[in-house]
Design a protein that fits this description.
Layout: H1 2-28, H2 36-54, H3 65-83, H4 89-104, H5 111-141, E1 149-151, E2 154-156, H6 158-177, H7 182-199, H8 202-222, H9 231-251, H10 253-260, H11 271-284, H12 294-299, H13 306-336, H14 338-350, H15 360-370, H16 374-389
Antiparallel strand pairs: 1-2
Helix pairs in contact: 1-2, 1-5, 2-4, 3-4, 3-13, 4-15, 5-6, 5-7, 6-7, 6-8, 6-14, 8-14, 9-10, 11-13, 13-14, 13-16, 14-15
Length: 390
């Protein structure tokens, strides 16, 4: 009997191995420790790539347009980067993440696999948030309200941290709405939200606002018939928000005031001037760009806007290719899974305030969408058409 159970467990792990490894990669990607973090990420990527190549749970006949576009973008970016000698270790990381996306696009996945990834990201983000809250309290005592947060032997930009936190809140609200471990999800939501407030990130606040409004609209429109039954839920949620707002505005008044203030002279942190310089650089290298991290190597600062970064580093050629690829991914997410779609839009909103082209969580989201089950996409599309007819 025990041998039979053990065989079933081994069989289950074998069937889910690629998804499990991807979930571990997605979880550990939050912990960007300089040496071991990079090493672990590389090992997991190589292991995942090997698993996909030799595994049986792939669709070899599946050849996606977005894969071709991404490979074309990779070729263009690599050529320009090598030409201007701006090749760095970070570019190797970017290449590996793009290759991972292309391979994951052939992986078969079902709803159970989606839940494995979701739960892994939530648990990892919770641990990450607790550490952020602790570190933020320490640096706030030193007089820094919005400064680089020391984590795992390095220091990270609060905006860079926040891009991983806000999308997870979308997952938790959906769990609360669907009554999936509701009480636990509420507690986790508040812990991660406090971590977002601790970063004092305006990009994080904008992402938070847009994601919650978008999610509220989606849940309302998608459940009009059941709306009466959800009145109590929304009432309780509003009360909890009022309590939380009072708590945050009292205990985190400085962080909160910085997040929502846009009327002082230093509110943009010099980003408008940086964007202007980066756009001017793009105009100089209009067609093919100046190579990966070309802005940083010339001016010793980042573009602080992923879309401007892509244009300045890969030119209008790379920009058209990448934005076409991104539109296809957004379309797929919208058709397949509206919650993942809102999460992706949240990440892209925050990407307007930092260079996120090489951010691991952005590529986790893109890879996540790449492996969304196509059957689910087709079913949702048919359901949408039927709803319109009705």
């Amino acid at each position: 009997m025990y041998i039979y159970k053990l065989k079933n467990i081994i069989k289950y792990i074998k069937n889910k191995f690629a998804i499990i490894i991807f979930s571990i990669f997605a979880s550990l990607s939050l912990y960007q420790q300089p040496l071991y973090g990079q090493l672990i990420a590389i090992i997991l990527i190589l292991l995942l790539i090997t698993t996909i190549i030799i595994g049986k749970n792939i669709d070899k006949g599946r050849n996606l347009i977005e894969n071709k576009l991404l490979l074309l973008f990779l070729f263009e970016a690599s050529a320009v980067t090598f030409y201007y000698s701006t090749f760095t270790q970070d570019f190797v990381k970017l290449i590996s993440q793009m290759i991972l996306f292309v391979l994951l696009g052939k992986l078969k996945m079902n709803k159970e696999d989606e839940k494995i990834i979701e739960n892994s990201v939530i648990v990892s983000t919770l641990i990450f948030s607790i550490i952020i809250i602790q570190k933020s309290i320490l640096i706030s005592k030193m007089g820094y309200i919005h400064g680089r947060i020391p984590l795992f032997g390095t220091t990270l930009d609060p905006n860079y941290i926040c891009i991983t936190l806000v999308p997870t809140l979308v997952l938790l609200i959906n769990n609360i709405y669907d009554n999936y471990y509701r009480n636990v999800s509420i507690i986790l939501y508040f812990i991660i939200l406090i971590a977002v407030i601790c970063t004092s990130s305006r990009g994080g606040f904008l992402g938070l606002l847009c994601s919650h409004l978008g999610l509220l609209c989606y849940l309302t429109i998608n459940n009009l018939k059941k709306l009466k039954k959800k009145v109590v839920f929304f009432g309780v949620l509003i009360i909890l928000f009022v309590i939380l707002f009072y708590y945050i505005s009292f205990y985190y008044s400085l962080q909160w005031s910085r997040m929502i203030s846009i009327n002082n002279e230093s509110s943009d942190n010099g980003r408008f001037e940086i964007w202007k310089i980066s756009i001017n650089l793009w105009q100089q290298y209009f067609v093919f760009g100046c190579g990966f991290q070309g802005v940083y190597q010339r001016y010793y600062f980042a573009s602080h806007n992923t879309f401007i970064q892509i244009l300045s580093e890969t030119g209008i050629t790379g920009g058209i290719i990448f934005f076409s690829y991104l539109l296809l991914i957004i379309k797929k997410a919208y058709i397949c899974n509206r919650i993942i779609f809102i999460m992706l839009i949240t990440v892209l909103i925050q990407a307007c305030f930092l260079d996120a082209l090489n951010h691991r969580f952005l590529w986790i989201m893109l890879c996540w969408i790449a492996i969304l089950p196509m059957q689910s996409c087709i079913y949702n599309k048919i359901s949408e058409k039927n709803r319109v007819k009705i």
